[in-house]
Structures are given as structure tokens and as C-alpha cells.
């Protein structure tokens, strides 16, 4: 989907340099309740339009805006240009940071931008930065709570599409990305999907990290974890970031993920004393040996519609527990991902969509 417009919304008179942008004064302007958004089709391209009420100035829409042309606008006076992307509903603010190895905004500013009532709204802010150690690019991400994870699977697909737009790459392309989880290699497919080599899963308990003792060599596989007085069977996997995967309670019935009270149980796993760096938690329902369904509680972001590294981790856990094949479709609340844990090279490959939603500018 190509969103071909950005808009100016003004609560007070704004300088003319902000035309075709979307300024928001973080911390002082709420969710702009008087603005109603709709999409219309103009010459086959989707256009984002804003209808204004008497409390706001008229808006301007522009067609056929590309990330490169939009982000080339001069950032002055605390203005941040960005592009909003989503991968299966896991949404991110993408920032062109290729001219510096330091993020353009602080972790505190990122948390404000991610606020869905007082900011832009997102699960995280991702920075496209210069590559290091021979890689093409560096990816850093700040979560919606301001913390910095090692990597994000859905985020890296959005990152890949963002780079392709910035560099005007057409057709099938791949490049190398340095992340806190190591080297990641995404490949944009001819159909626009993004296939990502997520590397080799880490199973050694102290490297996940977890304080649970290894019960299969140094790995934690189908081990007991007591959470709020209830015993769960868990397998611990790192995809460069920590994951705790569970298929249900010890001796309990088959897990029905739609029945979970995720906001209640999720934080208890995330902050459990057995996870010194906190953890992402995947609750999994097995539909067949090639079809799994999950809900996720992400470290630093809470309940999200999708988690790419989590989908990879759960396929590893399902294989290790003898529940699934190495190639699976994983259903997440935001849609499906195709995950394969290849026996030949021990790498995990994730394939799924990512698309631009809108372009904007924020007053910091």
C-alpha cells in the first residue's frame, strides 16, 4: 500500500515552512480529537486527507510523496521528520539517521512520540544509521517505554522497506544490517514481502539470559517456571533478545491463547526474577505441526499485534519440544508470518509484510 500524502494540522498558527507536514507538540497537544481521518483514491494512489473543524487551520494534502523527498526537508527548530510503517500491525516510527551514529532523539522523546494519545503512536522508534564493521546500515530501536532492545523482527522488515524507498531500490534486493543482536540480512522479495535471515538461535541458559538451570545440556527446554503460584512449562530462546515460550501450564489443558488475560499475566513473566534482562513471552497454541498461533507480551512494549523474533523463537521451541516441523505458519493477532528453521545452516528465516502508513513531522 502506498500512502501518497502527508498533512499539516495546526492547533495554533504555524510557520509556512511546515506545509505538507504533520506537526504535533508532544506533551501539550492531546490526540487532536477534532481531526477526522479518511482515505480517498486519486488516480489510483491512496491519499491521506484530514478534515478540519473551526478550531484548526485548513489542511494541505500532497500526492506522490516519497520518503526520500519528504525526509529531505530541512529539520529545524526541534522538528523531526519521520515515516510511519507497520508490519502485521506492529507499528514503528522510522527516522532517517544515515548522517549520524547518534540517534536524532533521546529515549525520553521516543517514549513521548510513541504515546498513542499525546504523540504519534507506535510500538517503537527505529533509526536507520550508518553501517559499521563492513555492514551497509545500522539499526537501533527505542521501545515505547524508552528502553532499547537488541533487535526487533517486525521492525527489521519495516527497516528494509524504508531503506528500499530511501535508496530507490527496485525489485529483489538484500543488504546487511548491524544490530544489537548481531548481523541481520533482509531480502526484499519481488512481491514486496521481506525475507530475513535472523541468524542462529541461542539456547545456552546464561546467554538467553535466564537463571533457570539448563535441563537439556545447557538449554532450558520444557522446564518448570512458577508464575504467581502457577507452574508453567517454558522453553527459553534468544534471537539476540530474550524469549520465554510456553505452550501451557504444567499438567493443564491445551492452551487457548484467545482466552488469556494478557495484560495481567504478561508483566509477571516479563519481570520474573528468573530473567535478569526481563523477557519477551510467547503464549502458543498448536493448530497442527505446521501451523501455530501465538499471542505475545513484549519486553518494554507490552501486548503487541506481532513480534517477529517471538515467532522465530516459538518455532525453535516447538521443534525442540517435538510439537512442530521446522517450517511453520505462525498466526499472530496482526496476521501470519512464515518461519523456517533450516537444518542445513541452523539459521532461522522469517518472511512477512511491511508497509508505509503515512509521512509526518513532529515538534519535539
Brief rundown of the structure:
One of its GO terms (cellular component) is chloroplast. Belongs to the diaminopimelate epimerase family. The protein has 364 residues and is mainly beta.
Give a written overview of the molecule.
The protein is mainly beta and 364 residues long. The protein has two domains: 3-199 and 354-363, Diaminopimelate Epimerase, Chain A, domain 1 (Roll); 205-346, Roll (Diaminopimelate Epimerase, Chain A, domain 1). The protein is built from five helices and 20 strands. The chain has helices at 67-71, 107-114, 153-166, 262-270, 308-320, and strands spanning 36-42, 45-51, 79-87, 90-96, 124-130, 137-143, 173-174, 177-179, 182-188, 194-199, 223-227, 230-238, 242-249, 280-288, 291-298, 302-304, 327-332, 335-341, 348-352, 355-363. It has an 18-stranded mixed β-sheet that branches. A hairpin with a 6-residue loop joins strand 5 (124-130) and strand 6. It is globular and about 60 Å long. Residues 1-63 have low confidence and may be disordered.
